[in-house]
Amino acid sequence: MPQPTDICLHQRSKILEVSFDTGEVFRLPCELLRVYSPSAEVQGHAPSQRVLQVGKREVNITAIHPVGHYAVLLEFDDGHRTGIYAWTYLYELGTHQGDYWQRYLDELAAAGAER
User: Fold this and answer.
1) Does 108 have pLDDT greater than 90?
2) Which uninterrupted H or E stretch holds 88?
3) Residue 66 has what pLDDT?
4) Which of 3, 9, 76, 89 could in theory staple to 80 by disulfide, Cβ–Cβ 3.0 to 4.6 A?
């Protein structure tokens, strides 16, 4: 599994940049990270319990806390601070960012909701 070499928050552009030892660098929007938070509050305890997050277009990260050598906890300015983002999950979000983003937009459209 690729290991992170750097993590940098660009608050003005609301982008979390994560670099891996493979040379890959992912620029993950805070909105994407928030709506796909791995927390039980968002994901539930089963896929059918996942809660669609709406109104997160302007969300930003306010703090990043290391969790051992395997993850970070991200705090968001909307008060959400319970998701622990494992390096493997950040890598997954980065490599499939387009798919995750399209799924989010499709779910919003199906629910008649907006970002």
Assistant:
1) yes
2) helix 87-95
3) 97
4) 76
The tokens describing 49, both together, are: 């319990």
Q: Quick one: tokens of 46?
A: 């089963």
Find out whether 76 and 59 touch, Cβ atoms under 8 Å: yes
CA distances from 36 to 21, 22, 23 (A): 24, 24, 24
Specify the pTM.
0.95
The residue written with tokens 């490599």 in the block is 95
What is the DSSP secondary structure assignment for residue 57, as one 8-state letter?
Answer: T
82: left (phi over 0), alpha (psi -120 to 50) or beta: alpha
Give the neighbor-by-neighbor strand order of the sheet with 25-29: 4-10, 15-20, 25-29
Q: Indicate the pairing of strand 84-86 with strand 4-10.
A: unpaired
